[in-house]
Amino acid sequence: MNFRVMARVLGWLFTLESVAMVACGVFAYYDPVDQHGAAVMPLILAGGITLLVGIVLVLVGMSPSDRIPRREGVLIVGLGWILSAGFGAIPFLLGEPHLALSAALFESISGFTTTGATVIADLGEWPRGILLWRSVMQWLGGLGILVLFVALLSGTRGGAKSLFRNESSFQSGEATTARIQDTAMVFLKIYLILTAVCLLGLRGLGLSWFDAVAHAFTTVATGGFSPYNESIAHFSDLATGLFIEIWLEIFMILGSTSFLIYVVIVRRNWQRIRRMEEVRWYFLMVLMGILAMWAVSSWGGGLSAGESLRGAVFTTVSIASTTGYATANYEQWPVAAYFILLVLMLVGGCAGSTSGGMKVSRLILLIRASWQEIVKAFRPNQILGMKVNDNHIDDVARAQTVLFVALFALMAIVAMVVVAVIETAHGIDFDTTVSAVLATFGNIGPGYGDVGPTDNYGHFQPATQLFLSLLMVLGRLELYAVLVLFVPAVWKKY
After folding, report:
1. Exposed, middle or buried by CB within 10 Å (0-12, 13-18, 19+), for 250?
2. How big is the CA angle at 352 (ends 465 and 23), to the nearest 5 degrees?
3. Are the C-beta atoms of 387 and 368 separated by less than 8 Å?
4. In sequence order, which ranges of 225-359 are alpha helices (DSSP H)?
5. Which of 323, 324, 390, 401 minimizes the C-alpha distance to 360?
């Protein structure tokens, strides 16, 4: 085990995180709304602690070798996310009105994993500097804090592919390390452009600079944190309210679409675009979800056709992209809406995007693998090939996908039992148990029951909050980069 390599990479990662904290602290110092500067010291102190740890780790990890072995790369990803969230929780511990340790960790992990679940009952009690930090955490976690790291620091060239493969759902295939770093840089540029365009559009629609920045960061990252208790419904009654919702819908879709398609567009490989069927499936799934939700809310929700269409479009896009913004309380809609949204939660967006869920590409592969098994029931000797996005899928890839889906389902069921056991004496119902697990495991945020779009996770016990925090990291890193931390053999020297 090369601990020096791990220390160096983690040290630089924490140093970058400290810069973001200090930047929020500088904003808090000059914020004309918060003249008492209540967020300045918590953010600056948290940034200083994170910077100090980062510098110490960088010095400890000074090594002539830049190469990051595969095992160390997996551990860096898992530890990097968990420890980054730990440092990110410090402002919530120090800032008024303070959060308990379990709640602060939950809020920070929810931010970095772009889940968007919150334990804060009244956001209006918190200074805007810390609310901005919530949005910045989601922006950093949207593309992936280590993908950003790979793009920005050439010192990781020897381990870029290992970090990129284990953190991102983008499949690197047979790309060389240099191409991985180039791809990460293209991803970062596209991410910055999408954020800037979204921000300027929101500003042009009448939002203040603070609101535009906070919502642009969490929209492109498909995170869903808003500085307002009402989420996007806070703007619904404005003259430009409908246009604000449409603008956010566009960028939620863009954020949850595979960034690989933007790389292909930049490189003008038009023929490759036609072969990217995952994007077409995703758009079709969103369209069908909108039509189904519109029909349900119109016929059984007591809304006019126009109101139901507006609510159906925003809710479907928000849930399908795993953003978690809300403009309507969909719990008041007919029960059929529950199952439609449940399917959207489970599937999520495209691989290589900022969204959560199991990803559309896995759904495609699972459907085709199931169909082939049905065909083989009456044609056992027939040899059937399989392609997804025009890439040949071998038996190993197919088995890995089936195993991932099965493991995801098994862990979700076990997690529901764990949450139910912990919360039995505190009045938790079935809807809350199921949706709390799926909403955190799938990095969606809001669910049903006591964690619906108008509720929060603050009423859960500290043990439940910590357990759901673990689920958020597992879902964001797609299980293996976190599960490997619990395997003793991976820590041995050999």
Report:
1. middle
2. 60
3. no
4. 241-256, 259-266, 270-274, 277-300, 305-320, 335-347
5. 401
Tell me the angle at which helices 335-347 and 277-300 cross, rounded to the nearest 10 degrees: 170
pLDDT tens sequence across 456-485 = 999 999 999 999 999 999 988 888 778 877
* pTM for this entry: 0.89
Q: Which residue carries 């009456």 as its tokens? A: 378
Q: CA 481, CA 333: separation in Å to the nearest integer? A: 38
Contact 244, 235 (CB under 8 A): yes
Cα angle: 190, vertex 114, 315; to 5 degrees: 90
Q: Which helix (H) or strand (E) holds 392?
A: strand 391-392
Alpha helices, DSSP H, located in 321-353: 335-347
pLDDT tens, position by position, 39-95: 999 999 999 999 999 999 999 877 656 677 777 777 888 888 899 999 999 999 998
Structure tokens at 341: 């949204």
C-alpha–C-alpha distance, residues 457 and 444, integer Å: 13
